[in-house]
Every structure is written in C-alpha cells, then in structure tokens.
Automatic annotation (TrEMBL):
The keyword Cell inner membrane does not apply. The keyword Lipid biosynthesis does not apply. Its cofactor is FAD. Keywords: FAD, Flavoprotein, Oxidoreductase. Residues 59-163 form the Acyl-CoA dehydrogenase/oxidase N-terminal domain. Residues 280-333 form the Acyl-CoA dehydrogenase/oxidase C-terminal domain. Residues 167-268 form the Acyl-CoA oxidase/dehydrogenase middle domain. GO terms for molecular function: acyl-CoA dehydrogenase activity; flavin adenine dinucleotide binding. This is DNA polymerase II.
Length: 341
C-alpha cells in the first residue's frame, strides 16, 4: 500500500519479521486464504486414545467433585475474590500444573485434557477459567515448556505444582497490537550479568496474584539488513523482586474476580539467566505462546455457553404461558434445540 505511513510500515515490518517462517504442520485456515480446502485435516475428527481419555476422565471427576463442594461462583461474583482456601485446594489437585510434565512434578495432561478441564471450569465460573488459562496458557509454564533452558525448567516449573501462579506482561498504555511502540526497557549492566528493567505494564491478567511473570522489555537495538532494529526480549521476573510494584487492580463488569492489574518496574535487577531465548526473540516467543494459548478460549466459552443453556432450560420449563411451559412453545423449543449444538 503506497499510502501507508512510514511509522505504520516500520511497525508492520517489525511484527512480520517475528512471525514463523517455517511450518511443521499444515494450517487449515491458512490454506483457506490461499484458496485450498483440505478437508482431510478436519475430517474424520481426531479422537483421544482410550488411555488419554481415561487419564482425563479421572482428573475431571476429581475437579468436578471439588468445585461442586467448594466453589460458590455467586459468592465469588459478589465479593470479587476467589478464596485462598479454594486456590489452595485447586493447587493440591494440581490445577496449576496441568500441562507441566511429570518430570517437573506436574500432572502431564495432554492439550485435549487440559481443554476439557477449562471447559468444566467455564461451566462454573469465568473468573476461575481466566485465572487458570492466563497462568498456564500464556503465563510462565507455556513459554518455558516451548523455549526454556533445562535450568529454567528445573527452577520454575516444579513450583506450580505447589500452587505458584504466573502471568504474562506484554501490553502497555501505548503499546497493544503494535509492539514496536513498547517502552519498558531492560538495560544490561556493565558486566553483562544482569538486566535492569524500568517501565509499566497494563492489563496483566493474574498480575495482582502472581508469584512469577514473563515480562517483555526493549533491549539495546541491533542492525538488521542495514537498519537499526528494535529488540524485544522476554524475562522471567519474580514478583517479590525489589522495584516491582502493583499499582492498580483493574475491575471488569463480567469478570469481577479477575486478578488483572497495572504493574510498574523501577530499577528491577534481573539475572541474565532469567532471559528466555536470546535478545530480540521476545516477540517471536509471544506470538507462538499466544497461538497455543488461544486454544483455551473456545474450551472455556463453550463451557460457559452450556451453563447459559442450563439456565435457559430451567427458566423455560418454569415459566408458564397459555397453559404450557414456554419451552414447549414452538418458537422457543426450536431455538433451544438449535442452540444445543
């Protein structure tokens, strides 16, 4: 587009340079854009193995029994808080280590069983689903499993089986979909052993509750194809590190117990060993992590939709007009039957 501004073009090039260049598996959606329809990628739909389903069934049964006995979604919505006792119980079940391999004391659930768990929590409470998903789909576990060193995995992953919570800090007041506008900076120390982070992050889900988070920050620029190129790098940051401050908890109409916040970093000194991948790999890490993380969204909202349908059926069987429950009236019955699928 010849009308695109210089700034817009630079931001577009910056984002595109961080995208994947090689694809191990074919993409049904990408091929649609290219005018190709590969139905064999969608049908027949892949089924779980009997063993994987058995593992998932056992965990789902325990989780459902715990939620039924201990989780009051209405109370959570009224107070805007998930009780610490509930979080402790979920930790004992292994809910904060569902996808973490057993070698790191995790449950080692498959992506399918993890999604089944979020589908179940979605039918109870969106706040809980957001907490578990933000922690495990885009928080520390997923980036470490994909890109972390053996030392980083050994240090951080076992903590989540004990109930540690994580978050992902990318967005800023002036940097959302345009990561090139990011200003939070990580400056290397003179001896190169540490980085000092300064800046502020916005909309950090789990940020007010987290023990450790992934922070995206700008590191010194490099020359790429003859041009100076901004570098975004990912760091593991302990929330009790001096200089880390939660400024504000953001409140939302639909998710009143969401632990989302604004976090400020003032001269936060982080060891170089806490860098994930290399300098300048942060945006690539973020994009690949979010690709996997998005799989949890349809699982959770499908569970929420089933809960909505349950309320719908209950009311339409109770409300009587013209001598019959309104659920027996053709118009409403038709809508209900359609929405079941």
């Amino acid at each position: 587009d010849k009308n695109i501004s210089k700034e817009a073009r630079a931001s577009l090039e910056f984002a595109e340079d961080s995208r994947e260049t090689e694809w191990v598996h074919p993409s049904f959606a990408a091929m649609l854009y290219q005018g190709q329809v590969k139905w064999d990628l969608m049908h027949p739909f892949p089924r779980q193995t009997n063993e994987d389903k058995r593992i998932g069934d056992e965990f789902i049964e325990k989780l459902e029994a715990y939620l039924e006995a201990n989780y009051d979604a209405d109370e959570v919505d009224r107070t805007g808080e998930i009780p610490d006792s509930v979080l402790k119980g979920l930790a004992e079940l292994g809910c904060f280590a569902m996808k973490i391999p057993t070698q790191y004391n995790g449950l080692g659930l498959s992506q399918v069983n993890y999604n089944r768990a979020l589908h179940l929590t979605g039918s109870y409470c969106g706040n809980l689903t957001a907490l578990l998903s933000a922690h495990q789909s885009i928080g520390v576990p997923q980036p470490l499993l994909m890109f972390g060193t053996d030392e980083q995995k050994e240090k951080f992953l076992p903590r989540f089986r004990e109930g540690a919570i994580s978050a992902f800090a990318l967005t800023e007041a002036n940097a959302g979909s345009d990561p090139r506008a990011m200003t939070t900076a990580a400056t290397p120390t003179e001896d190169g052993s540490h980085y000092v982070i300064n800046g502020e992050k916005l909309w950090c889900t789990n940020g007010t509750k987290a023990n450790v988070i992934v922070v995206m920050a700008v590191t010194p620029p490099k020359i790429v194809r003859g041009k100076e190129r901004k570098q975004i790098t990912a760091f593991l940051v302990e929330m009790d590190t001096p200089g880390v401050e939660v400024l504000h908890r953001c409140r939302f109409m639909g998710l009143k117990a969401l632990y989302n916040g604004v976090i400020r970093f003032t001269d936060v000194k982080i060891p170089k060993e806490n860098m994930i991948l290399e300098e300048g790999d942060g945006l690539r890490l973020a994009l690949k992590t979010l690709n996997t993380g998005r799989l949890s969204i349809p699982a959770g909202v499908t569970g929420s939709s089933k809960w909505c349908m349950k309320i719908n059926r209950k009311w339409t069987n109770k409300r009587v007009q013209w001598g019959h429950p309104i659920g027996e009236h053709e118009t409403i019955a038709g809508k209900q039957s359609f929405n079941r699928y």
